[in-house]
Amino acid sequence: MNPDARTPRDPLRRDAVLEHTLTLPVLGIPVTFAATAAEVIEIAEEAYGNWRALLDRPDLCSDERVSIRIFVEDVATVTAEPGPIVYRLADPDRVVLRMAGGVGITDVARRDGVAWVDPARLHDRATFRYGVLEAMTQSVLTFLDRQPFHAAAVERDGRAVLLAGPSGSGKSTVAYAAAQRGYRVLAEDLVFLQMGPPFRVWGLPGHLHLPFSAREHFVELDGALPELMANGKRKIAIDLRDSDAMPAIPVVDRAAICVLGRSTSRPVLTPMDGDALTATLTARLEPGFDLFADTVGGAIRQLARFGGWRLDLSDDPQEAVTLLERVLPS
């Protein structure tokens, strides 16, 4: 009898040997990307290549291992026409991705994700990166003690300030203003909280996306035009990867938190305790973040140990940067 006949094959083809691979410690957790097409690995490098710096810091890396496998082939059950990507939580451990030209599933219990995508899906690299590769990777990592939290983050000398608030509250613009004054940008609008021990805040640096109105406050943006982002919004894209604002290792263990609001004249900084921060930041959790409603309160109280504030912004985001000096934890 053929030995292969006695061995049931994995219906998701996790046992297949894929030619192209790359392993990077994303958010401090080693992730192996494997694909049938070299272009997928190129996109993974674009998305997460900066995490290679952690290879020399095993003290920051987890013992967990994650696998993301992408099969690029004709997908007979769907068309390759452009369309939205739909995410569905099949159960607490699994997320299913369905799209025109592909399908995927991630499994936290198995520490893996696998997807089949039509070659045409790779023509729009930005959407594939944002909607498939990053979405799959982060849907596993976020359940491995990397809780997502909706905030920008800027850092100086290993100390950070998180800027929390809904979309449009000014997070990216204040982060850009801080970068112009010597801060490094850990994250544009999403950080990951490691409850530990030790407690850590991880960022995903690389780009900022500013509203068109930012041109009024930064002369270097004069003439900059907004671009269509993968999420359908139009923003001025700022690439930080080759600038001094790009941190070598985007993680800190001390981070205060500011809730952003609006002032009528000048920026105002008001202390907030852990209860007030928790009540404010959990009152209306956005989709995706609401999956962590049971644990986000504990994460916010951890941050409050380093200082909690409400920062009401004036019309000029640069005026807020001076106040950040008072917020940085000691």
Secondary structure topology:
Blueprint: H1 3-6, E1 20-26, E2 29-35, H2 38-48, E3 66-72, E4 86-91, E5 94-99, E6 102-107, E7 112-117, H3 125-141, E8 147-149, E9 151-156, E10 159-164, H4 171-179, E11 184-187, E12 191-194, E13 200-202, E14 207-210, E15 227-228, E16 234-239, E17 251-252, E18 255-262, E19 268-271, H5 274-282, H6 296-304, E20 308-313, H7 318-327
Parallel strand pairs: 2-3, 3-7, 10-18, 18-20
Antiparallel strand pairs: 1-2, 4-5, 5-6, 6-7, 8-12, 9-10, 9-11, 12-13, 13-17, 14-16, 15-16, 19-20
Helix pairs in contact: 5-6
Please explain how this structure is put together.
By secondary structure, the protein is α+β, with helices and mostly antiparallel strands. Helices cover 21% and strands 31% of the residues. Strands 1-2-3-7-6-5-4 form a seven-stranded mixed beta sheet, with helices on one face. It has a six-stranded mixed beta sheet with strand order 11-9-10-18-20-19, with helices on both faces. It has a four-stranded antiparallel beta sheet with strand order 8-12-13-17, with no helix packed on it. Helix 5 (274-282) crosses helix 6 (296-304). The longest helix is centred in the middle third of the chain and has 17 residues, at 125-141. The chain is globular, with a radius of gyration of 21 Å. The mean pLDDT is 90.
Descriptors:
6-stranded mixed sheet, alpha+beta, 7-stranded mixed sheet, 7 helices, single chain
